[in-house]
Amino acid sequence: MFASSIAGTLWLWWLHSGTFRLLRGIYHRFRDAWLRSLTRSLLLRSGRVQELYRDGLAGRTLRGLLRWASGILGKLMARFGRINAGGLNYRLWKKWGAPSSLLKYRVLFPLFVALMYICPHDYWNNLYGLAGALGFLVLYLGVCAARGREPMDPTALGLPFLLFGCALVLSLTFSRAFSDSVRVLLLFFAALLLCYLGAAYVRDRDSLMTLLGFLYAAVMITALYALAQRVIGVKVSASLTDLDNNKGVPGRVYASLDNPNNFAEFLVLFTPLAAVWAVNVKAKFRNLPLNFFLCCALVVPALAMLMTYSRSGWISIVIAAGILLWFGEKRVLPLLALAAVLAVPLLPQSIMTRLSTLFVGHHDSSSSFRMRLWVGVLMMLMDHGVTGIGLGPGSFAALYPYYARKEAKVGPVHSHNVWFELLLELGIAGLFSFLWFFLRTLRKTGCGLGASRCPLRRLSLAACLAGIVGVSFAFLVEYVWYYPRILFAFFLCCGFAIGLAQGRDGDFEGLPAAE
To answer: For the chain, what percent of residues have pLDDT higher than 70?
Structure first.
């Protein structure tokens, strides 16, 4: 059916065209050079530091603590079972709890992740994220004990992950607002726990597809929420849009999150993973493949992304889509690039106006405000960049007024740049350890991509890489972790990438694992 359609005819014409053969020849030349390069061999080499960490005192201690906690939970569960054997609690569980798939860890964890982003901002409390991370860690260790399985080795996350956690704790020593720093430290602690749980969760095809399905639901529900906001109407905010340079631009949608930029960052991180699920669903709907409809439905988050009017989000999602398509179906990239160029004149005037503000430089209040803000931040870094000033907006507010430029004295609660903020809050130790963790995660993901021959695992790794690299563009102009749910999303995505990278192709090709 597709081959006889206009789209199929154009596709076959493209595959047999001289332009495609030329591009394929250039690609093969560069690919072969890369495969033989020294850089690639260095990247694929197993790090000696990681081996020392895994086999050293720190690695053995971390593994021992998790085994001890898992053993204690296993004994408590066995004792609780003996106490309730034959009682009312046992009968109720056997009748209603045990048969329910919703009460299994395989479903509960991705359900929690999805609900964390579906929950409207006005009903969300950041303590839910902390409580959820702690609760699911206990549940995960209990499940491992019940099945006689060891918890995932925490050293798989790498030495820089541990060093970054230590830098977060050490930053309390230099805090200018101790209670606020402790509050933010707890949120980072929750994010690191979610990273570990995310890496431990994706262990086979069944768990991966369950996770991706819930992420697809979260992306679609929030995107529909955003479209509903557009229909109802969103008030134009001067704090989010330069009204002089954005005449005709409507209010920016934000769905269930606090800010349109936050919503755009959420879409950048999780839409690639949602797309992987849509492509890999095998069910049918009225004799037609269901994945066709699921893929078509992805136009909804694409429209929602446009309606955020987030310039950094637009660039980030283009980067993410390019990476995903490069590893998924690179043959369509030239056609899509051409289609995107041809579609520019068809875009609504409000989007064209918003795009044009990328090129007005200092005439855009948002850009000029950041430039003046960064002058003050750089002066702060000259005095406090070695040790940092402590986590949180409280420490920033205590010192920034002494360094602020007159034009950017009122309003900022952070530096609008992740790298500046890391150096400012955590000092050199925090910036170095996170940068090491970030680059190691990208390296592990890339190595997993290069070694994998399983389509699902390979495409999922590409989606994680797309989300992480895509949102890292926004790192340059936004402190994306100021909103904790995006902090959680970033480290969850890193955890998924690490879990997939350390897995094996056979685990993601076989039959679903028994629960």
So the answer is: 83
